[in-house]
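WARN no homologs supplied; continuing
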Amino acid sequence: MPAGHVGKKNEITLPVIEATLRISLTDGLPVLAVSESVEDLLGFKAEEFLSSKVFLKDRIHWDDADVSSVLFTPEIQKKSVPFNIRIRHADGRIRCIKGQSTKVAAPSGGTVILDLHLQDAKSLRQITDTHDVMASVKAMMENTDDMIYFKDRNHVFTAASRTMVNLGNAAKHWTDLIGKTDYDFLPEEFADLYYEMEKQVFAGIPVVQRISAAPALGGREIWIDDRKYPIENDSGEIIGLFGIARDITERRKVIETLRESEEFLRESQKIAGLGSYVLDIRRGMWSSSDVMNQIFGIDETYERTVAGWSALVYPDDRTLMDAHFADDVLRKGNVFDKEYRIVRNSDQVVRWVHGLGKVEFDAQGVPLRIRGTIQDITERRQAEENLRESKELLQLFIEHAPACAR
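OK structure emitted
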């Protein structure tokens, strides 16, 4: 087909780049026949295939081994089988190929012959000249902040938003992407990721999502949340896909900074023996950090109610603590600030803690929650007790020591 022509109403068909090969499915996979047009399709002369200087199987993308293994298995096929595959062109870049295969017995018998009809996926695109549809698509593509795109069944772009030009070495305008595949403007490793996602869509998965790094203009790296959905015709056949990719680079930076801050806070709390908690006053429930759980000797199954907290307090200190909480904190709105003893739940060992907490009120002055910290001060209290005892011993010694002889 030397030139494009108008097919159905409002539809322009591009010239198709295609080639045929006949391969014997025996050792070495010798090519028995190949059309001269294979050079237009794959960049190699027909003679290079016939002389086994170039092997088609070696040019197939490694991640399409599932398709390749089916193609080169010597089993008779009763009818033509469609497939999509990636083949590396002589220029080193990947071409997305639509193919049809048949396998028949050789006339001499004992050998299976593979006939391949290969077509460049980009050349199969049909241009629809429907004014209203294109006007709506153009408005969306020009004004969205997300990267939106449509592809046909052969992984070829049929529409793309203006933001798509931010990826890789894409184009100056989104319309320049039409009729291309990812392999035409993205580094191969990224194009491989997106092609694999699209294979899953075409296999029937209703939505495929991947969060990954992507190349951007100027050589910088961005992170995108890419989601792909199948497009079906009236018969339920998947004829293409719709994709939307969102730049989440800044969000990831915030999350990463927050994660690092949280890790630093957790490590600092662990070193200082400082746990944290939030008490929901209206519900009477509280949550606690890992360090606080370790201080109290509790796990995720422990009942985090006011009664559960009170049960951890050393019996002789409960009356004082309950009064401080009800009167000073809830009624007067003072800061919760007490040193008291607890009985660690895991081993019933008595520990000293310092509790701090600040009440948060609503607009009407009703207490909502308390946010605070619990610090294990057992070693400090023990040191203070040892010092006190030492001072008392010293004082007794001074008071009762015999007078020196004169």
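The longest strand covers residues 94-105.
OK
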